[in-house]
Amino acid sequence: MADLASRISKPADTPVDAPVDAPAEEEATNTPAAGEGNGTDDKVDAPAEQEATNTPAAGEGNGTDDKVDGDNSGLIEPAYDVEVKLSDLQADTHSPLYSVSSFEELGLPKAINDGLLAMNFKKPSKIQENALPLMISDPPRNMIAQSQSGTGKTAAFVLSALSRVDFSQSTQPQALLLAPSRELARQIQGVIQTIGQFCDNLIVEAAIPGSISRETGVRGSLVVGTPGTVMDLVRRRQFNVSQLKVLVIDEADNMLDQQGLGEQCLRVKGLLPKDIQILLFSATFPDKVMAFARKFAPNANEIKLRHQELTVKGISQMYMDCPDESQKYDVLCRLYGLMTIGSSVIFVKTRESANEIQRRMEADGHTVSALHGAHEGKTRDALLDDFRSGRSKVLITTNVLARGIDVSSVSMVINYDIPMKGSGDREPDAETYLHRIGRTGRFGRVGVSISFVYDGKSYDALNEIASFYGIDLIQLSTDDWDATEKKVQNVIKSSRARPDYAPNALGN
């Protein structure tokens, strides 16, 4: 790290084993951009124009935080402590706090259990075994649940929502699930359809721009959508919310961030029945958001990981010290061969950066695609479907895909620009970093993240993020590409990711 150290004024005892790169420009995470609103790509007054819903097929419905096509009883889950806090109303000796070791113990309808068996889910994950008994109990109780990416949060809240639905009233909306982007909403819709594939009369609709017919309005028992479109449909009386029993908010830390999406979620909640069950899920809950979440979902039971265990344990986290900002592109291209071993996601700060990197890489003979909020809905759907199917292996994107999206083949995430927040990008965004790298290494799979640094600001930002999570980042050399490629290949081609990665152990 001598080159970086020589360019940075810092105390001699500053640890050098953890850096991240500052973005050149940012597609707002906290400040909504025109038409993209805080990652929702969904404005408050966005019209719900008629368009055929492009929903994931049953096989694609694996777009969950869970493994769908494998035996999850054999997956390696990180050993972590789960803190469970019962709401004040239930905190007494007669209030049973228990976990389950099998889905059968939950007493779910046979059709739902059959769906789980068809997906080869044989036992609950940690978050599922602790959260599900509380969420499906009667009378319904609110829940705030936090667990790292890839641990089964999606399946947990989908099972809870399905358990509340009366399928004899298939066209009456009974469960509403909100997500920050159309991509995540479509993914959750696919998960519901897959888990509920044996439920008679299951109708799941996506309340995203252009997906709901103006003539019929919302006609599904479960509705997955983005806040702006949902609010627009309710106001136009195309979405009857009178019989809703449960409201789920995924990526709740971003959705309740009181700017943009937070205001929209509050307005949506104000339109719903007062006694609705509220379930909030996220991989991270900063203190200020948790305080707001407790007001949004009063008297909620809480399940969360201890702070020091928030980082994604299954991912080998690395960094590269680029000579300067202009040479980040050259370093990126040198990594292209490693990116296509599986699939890779490159996170940049703005749509303009994504388009420019795509243009340059294609001109240099590389096959890549770019996805961001400036694209039309159908184009975004097609780009993500191509990436899921493997037709596209390298995807350049902004923070619109930083949250929740699960593509099982993703083996590498590159932070081309380090996530920053605040006016003028004054401070590193540790939560977004965690969500970004969580697109790989999901549920015991292999994963590598590589962050680019090039100056004092990017170094300090990455160092602060690493210190926050207690991460020891591994440096990859830009001068010895044989050694760099060997390090990354040894992780990607191993049986599972090694967060305790040591260079000497991998032949360097």
TrEMBL record:
Give the Low complexity compositional bias ranges: 11-22
| Keyword Nucleotide-binding among record annotations | yes
PROSITE patterns (alphabetical): DEAD_ATP_HELICASE (PS00039), HELICASE_ATP_BIND_1 (PS51192), HELICASE_CTER (PS51194), Q_MOTIF (PS51195)
Where is the short sequence motif Q motif located?
Answer: 101-129
Q: Which GO terms describe its cellular component?
A: nuclear membrane; nuclear pore
Q: Where is the DEAD-box RNA helicase Q domain?
A: 101-129
Chief localization class?
A: nucleus
Region ranges (Disordered):
1-75
Domain called Helicase ATP-binding: residue spans? 134-303
Any GO BP annotation = protein transport
Sorted alphabetically, which SUPFAM superfamilies does this protein's record hold?
Answer: P-loop containing nucleoside triphosphate hydrolases
How is this protein situated with respect to the membrane? Peripheral membrane protein
Where in or outside the cell it occurs: the entry states: Nucleus membrane; Nucleus, Nuclear pore complex
Which Gene Ontology MF annotations are present? ATP binding; hydrolase activity; RNA binding; RNA helicase activity
The Helicase C-terminal domain covers 314-492
Listed SMART domains: DEXDc (SM00487), HELICc (SM00490)
| Pfam families membership | DEAD, Helicase_C
Keyword Zinc included in the entry's annotation: no
Instruction: Write down the chemical reaction(s) this protein catalyses.
Output: ATP + H2O = ADP + phosphate + H(+)
Q: Which UniProt keywords apply?
A: ATP-binding, Helicase, Hydrolase, mRNA transport, Nuclear pore complex, Nucleotide-binding, Nucleus, Protein transport, RNA-binding, Translocation, Transport
Task: Give the EC number.
Answer: 3.6.4.13
Functionally, this protein is described as follows: ATP-dependent RNA helicase associated with the nuclear pore complex and essential for mRNA export from the nucleus. May participate in a terminal step of mRNA export through the removal of proteins that accompany mRNA through the nucleopore complex. May also be involved in early transcription.
Note the subunit structure: Associates with the nuclear pore complex.
Family of the protein in this entry: Belongs to the DEAD box helicase family. DDX19/DBP5 subfamily.
According to UniProt, the name of this protein is: RNA helicase
Native organism is Trichocladium antarcticum
